[in-house]
Structures are given as C-alpha cells and as structure tokens.
Write a structure and sequence with these properties.
By secondary structure, the protein is of the alpha/beta class. It has 16 helices and 14 strands. It has an eight-stranded mixed beta sheet with strand order 1-14-13-2-3-7-6-10, sandwiched between helices. The protein has a two-stranded antiparallel ribbon with strand order 4-5. Strand 13, helix 15 and strand 14 form a beta-alpha-beta unit. Helix 4 packs across helix 5. The longest helix is centred in the middle third of the chain and has 18 residues. The termini are far apart.
C-alpha cells in the first residue's frame, strides 16, 4: 500500500474530513487532497502529526512515507527491481553491532520535550542559555502561540557570542533555516512568527538576505507570509559611502502555518492608539502619521499600516542595539491570545520577554550569550508594571 492510500484509509476509518486534517497540520484543503492522491508529499513533522491524530504507530507511518519516496523515484525505471534488491541488501546487511549501538536523540524524539510543561502558570519569563535550534528541540510540538525575534545579523556582531556563526551568506541562510524548521514544529497551527531582519552588503552590493531567508521558508518549509513590515528606524549610524543611499530600514515579516491564525485586530488598534497618545513625538506628529501610515477602521482606533516609524534604542553593550518596545509589542498583542506563550529564540537582553511579562503572558527567551541572559533576567526582575 502506498503512503497516500494509507492516510486516505486512516482518515476514512477515523471519520474525519480532509478539512479537519488540513487545519490540524497547517495546510489548505487542496494541499491535503494532493497528499491523498500522491501528487504531493507532506513534511516529516506533518506525518508525525497525522500519526498522532489517527492514533497509529508513528514509526510505521514514517517508514511508509520514506518507502513511498524511494518507490516514486525508481518505479518507472527499468532497473527498479535490481535497485530495490540492492537497497534491501544494504538495509539488511548492516552490522549487528551498529544496530545495537545507542542512538542519538533524534529530531522527532519526544522523550525530552517538556520545556513548556515545566513553565507552570507563572508569567515570570523562563530564560535559557544555549544555541537556539538546540534548546528549541526541548519544546513540545505545537505548544507556542507566538514567536517574535531578531536573529543575529550576519557579519555585524563578530564578537563570537552569537548562535549563528556562518562564514558565507548561503551558510547563514541554511543555519537560520534550521532554527525556523524547529519554529514550525513548535508553533501552534493558529500561531504566528514575526521575524525581524536587516540586510547586508558585500562589495557594495545588497545581498537580499531577509527575502532570501523568507522565500526559502515559504518554498521549503511551508510558511505563509501575511505581511512584510518596513521598519523605518529614523536614526542610524553615519554612513560615508558616495555610491549608494543611506540604509534606514529593516523588515519585520509576519509568517503563519495556515489560514486560521489568531489575530486580535481590536487589541492591536487599542494598543497602537495608546502608544501614539503616550509618546510626545508621536502626539505632535499624529495628523501626519495618520495620513501616511494609518487608515480608519471601526470604533477601536486606527489600523497600523505596514511602515512603522520607530527609533532605534541603544544599549550599554558595544555594537548592540535593543529592539524597540513598540516593534515587538504590536506583534505580541495582535497574535498572542490571553494565556498564551511567547518565544524569542534569539532574545538578547530580553525585550520580548519583558513585554510578555507586562502583558501577563508566559514566555521563553533563548540566547547563547550568558551576559545577555544575565542582563535580561536583571532588567525583567526590576521592570515596573506597564501602562499597557
């Protein structure tokens, strides 16, 4: 039996609809239908989710999924029979000692995934020192409501204290994609990922790194892009080049797994209106802001546009800028439900976790730099209650 036939049989036996399963694994109905017709292959983590839904042996379903891939590659080749025999010989002829050797913890092993369960109900942020992709392996499947983060900038923080240590743009993209694959696994079907990224230049030419990363996430991992926000930073370091414009923006990408993501439009508008009223500069320029960046909507305020003018916040750390509060607060209030959990896998000095704490939300912050974690913990413990 082919994998596509198997999942169709399991679905019919369970009495579930394609619509139900599509929502559960974060795809639309046409995509799921193509899985059952053998026209498209799901990802491994989606196969594991299907196994849990159908209450069937996940190892057997994954093995069938792998076998189906091998079969589809060689089925119509005249050497298929001989190739299959060779493959059986390779698999069956593995040394017994190798088969008995202890296995490393696999990416889909759930035995150590208990980080969210350990949080309890406390809203005091949980801060972990370590590599982002590695620590994220300890987080349970589909347990996080909202991820807001700024990954290390390629080549801009070269103190040897960042999770990503790429020596080329392509390597940087691949390392970041490893963490984003973990983000896909742990994010709830209705969850959101907000990814803030700046670009870089090589030999005076822009590399397009933010878009290269996001397009790879969409093409290879299944993410869907809701918005690309342009962060107009208003203040940047002086730049002396005479052959290109001064760079004053970064991107904030809003990505989701499927069409049914949580989005609190009313809370977003209320928060934005409060930010504008409580900021002197924003209040003085309110008419201009409303004209350029906002549009009226409903009775709860104004809808932010996709260009956010927010100043850079400096820190006491050399070559380090703190993520502005507003840049992270708006995504969190819009896409993290009450009682939800926020994650920042590259938390730095803890802006995401501070905001989550103020909003009475549980949060997890990860950073490989012990000094950043120490400062984040200290600043959060001293943080007074927010006006928001």
């Amino acid at each position: 039996m082919l994998f596509s036939d198997k999942i169709k049989q399991l679905r019919q036996e369970s009495g579930k609809r394609q619509k139900d399963l599509a929502r559960a694994i974060g795809v639309d109905v046409p995509a799921y239908s193509r899985y059952e017709h053998g026209e498209r292959r799901p990802k491994r983590d989606q196969v594991l989710r299907l196994a849990r839904i159908f209450k069937t042996d996940p190892d057997e379903l994954v093995a069938m999924w792998l076998a189906d891939e091998a079969y589809s590659r060689i089925a119509h080749d005249k050497m298929a029979t001989r190739a299959a025999a060779l493959l059986r010989g390779v698999l069956d002829g593995a040394p017994a000692a190798a088969a008995q050797a202890p296995l490393a913890v696999a990416d889909d092993d759930t035995s150590r995934r208990n980080l969210v369960a350990s949080l309890g109900r406390s809203v005091m942020p949980h801060l972990e020192q370590g590599d982002a992709a590695t620590v994220m392996q300890r987080i349970e499947d589909e347990s996080i409501d909202c991820i807001v983060t700024t990954p290390p900038y390629w080549r801009r923080r070269s103190q040897g204290t960042e999770s990503i240590s790429a020596t080329s743009a392509d390597q940087y993209i691949e390392q970041l994609l490893q963490a984003m694959q973990q983000a896909w696994r742990i994010l709830k079907p209705e969850g959101s990922l907000w990814l803030n990224m700046g670009d870089d230049t090589t030999g005076g030419f822009v590399q397009g790194l933010p878009w290269r990363v996001v397009l790879a996430m969409m093409d290879r991992q299944g993410w869907r892009l809701v918005n690309e926000v342009v962060w107009n930073k208003t203040t940047t370091s002086p730049q002396g080049s005479q052959d290109h414009l001064r760079k004053v923006h970064e991107f904030m990408f809003h990505l989701v797994k499927g069409p049914n993501f949580h989005y609190d439009d009313e809370e977003l508008r209320r928060t934005y209106a409060l930010i504008v009223r409580n900021d002197d500069k924003s209040r003085k320029r309110s008419d201009k802001i409303q004209e350029r960046y906002l549009q009226p909507e409903g009775t709860h305020g104004l809808v932010p546009g996709d260009v956010w003018t927010i100043g850079v916040q400096r820190s006491g750390i050399a070559h380090y800028c703190v993520a502005p509060d507003t840049l992270y607060r708006l995504p969190i209030v819009a896409t993290c439900p009450h009682g939800g959990i926020v994650l920042d896998p590259y938390c730095g000095t803890g802006t995401t976790c501070k905001i989550a704490y103020e909003l009475n939300l549980r949060s997890i912050g990860i950073d490989i730099n012990a000094n950043y974690i120490k400062q984040a913990r200290a600043s959060i413990e001293q943080k007074p209650l927010s006006l928001f």
